[in-house]
Amino acid sequence: MKKYLCLIILLIFASCTSLNAYNKNISQIEINKINSEITDVITNLKEAANSNRYDKIKEIFLPTFKNNIIVKKLQEYDLSSLTFIFSEPKVKSNNKAISVMAINYNTASNYFNITWKKMDDGSWKISNVAEKK
User: Fold this and answer.
1) Which whole-number Å values give the CA distances from 55 to 32, 36, 52, 129, in the listed order?
2) Is beta strand 83-86 parallel, antiparallel or unpaired with respect to 96-105?
3) Dihedral through CA 93, CA 121, CA 115, CA 73, nearest 10?
4) What is the pLDDT of residue 21?
C-alpha cells in the first residue's frame, strides 16, 4: 500500500514540476514581440477608456459569460475619470500571458490579475480578470 501511495505522490510531484518549465522554450525575441503586441492592446484599451468607447473595450475582452458581465458593469461608469496602470506582461507561453492592472480613482486603487490569450488571428484579448487579494 505504501508503494502505491509513494508512486501517486511521485507522479503528482513530477507533473507539477513539468508545468513550471513550459515557457523555457520561448526565445527572448518572441517574449519581446509578445510584450510589444500586448502593450499595443493596452494602449488601445486606455484610449478607449478615456473616451468611454465601450464598443472598443468589448472587442478587447474574450466573449465569455464572465467577461460580458464585466463589460456590462463597466458601461455603468464614466471611465474617463479613472487611471489604468498595467504591469509588464509576464509571458507564460506563445499564446498566454499575465499582467497586473491597477485602477486609480482619486486616492483609491484596485488591483486585478489579467490573463491574456492570443487568438487564432494573432490578436491578444483579455480572457480573465480577477481581483488581486
Assistant:
1) 29, 23, 9, 18
2) antiparallel
3) 180
4) 46
Question: Cell numbers at residue 43, please?
Answer: 494602449
How far apart, in whole angstroms, are the C-alpha atoms of residue 8 and residue 129? 34
DSSP state of 89: P
**pLDDT, tens only, 49-81:** 999 999 999 999 999 999 999 999 999 999 999
User: What cell was used for 82?
Assistant: 479613472
- Listed as ranges, residues in the chain with pLDDT below 70 are 1-11, 13-24
- Written as nine digits, the cell of 124 is 491578444
What are the distances in angstroms from CA 94 to CA 37, 59, 106?
A: 12, 21, 37
Q: Whole-prediction pTM value?
A: 0.77
Give me the count of residues in the chain: 133
